[in-house]
TrEMBL record, chain A:
Entry protein name: Transcription and mRNA export factor ENY2
Role this protein plays: Involved in mRNA export coupled transcription activation by association with both the TREX-2 and the SAGA complexes. The transcription regulatory histone acetylation (HAT) complex SAGA is a multiprotein complex that activates transcription by remodeling chromatin and mediating histone acetylation and deubiquitination. Within the SAGA complex, participates to a subcomplex that specifically deubiquitinates histones. The SAGA complex is recruited to specific gene promoters by activators, where it is required for transcription. Involved in mRNA export coupled transcription activation by association with both the TREX-2 and the SAGA complexes. The transcription regulatory histone acetylation (HAT) complex SAGA is a multiprotein complex that activates transcription by remodeling chromatin and mediating histone acetylation and deubiquitination. Within the SAGA complex, participates in a subcomplex that specifically deubiquitinates histones. The SAGA complex is recruited to specific gene promoters by activators, where it is required for transcription.
GO cellular component entries: DUBm complex; nuclear pore; nucleoplasm; SAGA complex; transcription export complex 2
Key words of the record: Activator, Chromatin regulator, mRNA transport, Nucleus, Protein transport, Transcription, Transcription regulation, Translocation, Transport
Source organism of the structure: Neogobius melanostomus
Pfam families: EnY2 (PF10163)
Entry-linked PANTHER family: ENHANCER OF YELLOW 2 TRANSCRIPTION FACTOR
InterPro entries: TF_ENY2, TF_EnY2_sf
UniProtKB/TrEMBL annotation, chain B:
GO CC terms in record: nucleus
UBP-type domain span: 4-121
Alphabetized InterPro entries for the sequence: Papain-like_cys_pep_sf (IPR038765), Peptidase_C19_UCH (IPR001394), Ub_carboxyl-term_hydrolase (IPR050185), USP (IPR028889), USP_CS (IPR018200), Znf_RING/FYVE/PHD (IPR013083), Znf_UBP (IPR001607)
EC number: 3.4.19.12
Major location category of this protein: nucleus
Family: Belongs to the peptidase C19 family. UBP8 subfamily.
Cellular localization per UniProt: Nucleus
Lineage: Eukaryota, Metazoa, Chordata, Craniata, Vertebrata
Taxonomic source organism: Neogobius melanostomus
PROSITE patterns (UniProt xref): USP_1, USP_2, USP_3, ZF_UBP
Name under which the protein is recorded: Ubiquitin carboxyl-terminal hydrolase
Keyword Zinc-finger belongs to the record: yes
Domain USP positions: 160-501
Length: 91, 506
């Protein structure tokens, strides 16, 4: 494992142990709801389901279709804030 | 994707499977205690590549963790013929034969229970409420009662005029404000009042009836004779055909509703813990701090309130005495020096420190003697519905008159500067931090305005109420007309009703 992924794993471990990961998840959830991200993606999911047909669509289909859009639509302000929180936690 | 699950889980559901599944949820999905969290942190990595991301899944048949994205768990499933895995992020069960997530009722039940348990331990402050799902009985009821009311933007359900029974406009406008208080409306329309009063004179029952009338869809004005009779019976000082004060009626009505809430004595035993809807919606806490000018000791009391009565400029008490430390800072985007008086000005005056003067010395607990002091009011706890009463009727020894000074009030109001907590942080030198975006607790929206036209001797009450977020209507006894936001904000304003914008679970 590269140094980078080693460090990632170590940070992740610490976050989980201290329960901070859950708190960050909740914070992010709230922020993404507020900025309308959740609604945008929900609408996109509905479109995908209609396109593929309700009886045939799988979770995989949704994940493949929705993930890139979801990643792109996260506002910079949310990213910044979470990064700040993580930095503060590690300090 | 069928909600009935798939048949392949039957191979898993043998022996002690429920307990095994619970353990997996507790240890690897929703780790509640510190110990399980540590274990999760250490062991939840892919057995093939060591990564902890990539949608890690755990095999349900053996101890194997594998990435989903990199298909490591798929390889394991194929080679070992273990066709069920669980998503460690969200707890979903994946069936490799069906090639999709499956939703087995028993497994879902276990998942829900374990999630709730973990939340209780892990982070007690966060919301632990799940979305509502109808029970069997509720589904049955919905099927047997297929008639649905559809609310469109133009529908006027909930709007109804009230006949004036002889100077009863003071009662009519308060009824309009109460029937358009969202929480109160939701409470009564969901039939939550179970009357335990023996006689027929329960005002809460009558309120319930009133809501039924308003939301019945009838467009003819309602004749509230029963309500009037009950009011006369229970609030004698309001009886008679003379014009009464709408504010007095509001307080009397809230008081009677509060008293009638629970008539079988539960309240008598525990007056401080009343759980009636009136207390839940209207009761706030007003903090009064008296500071001794000598030893600077502070004596604090907190009193409940249903409304805030605000003095106006033009009354016999001066509006802006030169108080020490008065600053020209802006609050709610307004400065008090220019333009008409605003509601915020009145609130600032209400919460300013007031020197009590040498003729009103208070006994100081610290100094053990009578000293001069200052008194300051702030909001300790805000009610869900805040009612502001502009004191337009002056009944001093010298004169009885109506103060018609225009006071401008906003559609959206932030009560943060008037809170006891804000005052404390100001005193401690903390700058008012950019309010944490998750704390929207002090923001209010206007939803009803009661106005008085005329003089002290003869006048008429009307009200504006808000429907569907941005539609306003003027209620003049039996006549309801559409109004613009400008009409509302230009009106004189006597009673202003604000509703919290964001509601939270206790």
């Amino acid at each position: 494992m590269s140094k980078d992924s080693q460090m990632r794993a170590a940070i992740n471990q610490k976050l989980i142990e201290m329960g901070e990961r859950e708190r960050l998840k909740e914070l992010m959830r709230a922020k993404l709801v507020e900025c309308g991200w959740k609604d945008q993606l929900k609408a996109h999911c509905k479109d995908v389901i209609i396109e593929k047909g309700l009886e045939h669509v799988t979770v995989e289909d949704l994940v493949t279709e929705v993930t890139p859009k979801g990643r792109a639509l996260v506002p910079d302000s949310v990213k910044k804030e979470l990064l700040q929180r993580i930095r503060a936690f590690l300090a | 994707m069928s909600p009935a699950g798939c048949s392949h889980v039957n191979g898993y559901k043998v022996e002690n499977w429920k307990q095994n599944l619970r353990v997996i949820y507790q240890c690897f999905v929703w780790s509640g205690t510190a110990e399980t969290r540590r274990r999760k942190a250490k062991s939840c990595i892919c057995h093939m590549c060591g990564a902890h991301l990539n949608r890690l899944h755990s095999c349900l048949y053996c101890v194997f963790f594998g990435c989903f994205t990199k298909k490591h768990i798929h390889e394991h499933a194929k080679s070992k013929r273990h066709n069920l895995a669980i998503d460690l992020l969200y707890g979903g069960i994946y069936c490799f034969v069906c090639q999709d997530y499956i939703y087995d009722k028993d497994m879902e039940q276990i998942a829900k229970e374990e999630q709730r348990k973990a939340w209780k331990f892990a982070v007690p402050n966060l919301l632990t409420y799940t979305t509502w799902e109808p029970t069997k009985r509720e589904l049955e009821l919905l099927r047997h009662n297929p008639k649905r009311r559809k609310i469109t933007t133009n529908c006027t359900i909930g709007l109804r005029g009230l006949i004036n029974l002889g100077n009863t406009c003071f009662m009519n406008c308060i009824v309009q404000a109460l029937t358009h208080t969202p929480l109160l409306r939701d409470f009564f329309l969901s039939d939550r009042h179970k009357c335990e009063m023996q006689s027929n004179s329960c005002l809460v029952c009558e309120m319930s009836q009133l809501f039924q009338e308003f939301y019945s869809g009838h467009r003819s004005p309602h004749i509230p004779f029963r309500l009037l009779h009950l009011v006369w019976t229970h609030a004698r000082h309001l009886a008679g055909y003379e014009q009464q004060d709408a504010h007095e009626f509001l307080i009397a009505a809230l008081d009677v509703l509060h008293r009638h809430w629970d008539d079988n004595g539960k309240k008598a035993n525990n007056p401080n813990h009343c759980n009636c809807i009136i207390d839940q919606i209207f009761t706030g806490g007003l903090q009064s701090d008296v500071t001794c000018q000598v030893c600077h000791g502070v004596s604090t009391t907190i009193d409940p309130f249903w409304d805030i009565s605000l003095d106006l400029p033009g009354s016999s008490t001066p509006f802006w005495p030169l108080s020490p430390g008065g600053d020209g800072s802006t609050v709610n985007g307004e400065s008090h020096m220019t333009g008409p008086t605003t509601l915020t000005d009145c609130l600032r005056r209400f919460t300013r420190p007031e020197h009590l003067g040498s003729s009103a010395k208070i006994k100081c607990g610290g100094c053990h003697s009578y000293q001069e002091s200052t008194k300051q009011l702030t909001m300790k706890k805000l009610p869900i519905v805040a009612c502001f009463h502009l004191k337009r009727f002056e009944h001093s020894a010298k004169l009885r008159r109506k103060i018609t000074t225009y006071v401008s009030f906003p559609l959206e109001l932030d009560m943060t500067p008037f809170m006891a907590s804000s005052k404390e942080s100001r005193m401690n030198g903390q700058y008012q931090q950019t309010v944490d975006i998750l704390n929207n607790d002090n923001k209010y929206s206007l939803f009803a305005v009661v106005n008085h036209q005329g003089t002290l001797e003869s006048g008429h009450y009307t009200s504006f109420i808000r429907q569907h977020k941005d539609q306003w209507f003027k209620c003049d006894d039996a006549i309801i007309t559409k109004a613009s936001i400008k009409d509302v904000l230009d009106s004189e304003g006597y009673l202003l009703f604000y509703h919290k914008q964001f509601l939270e679970y206790e």
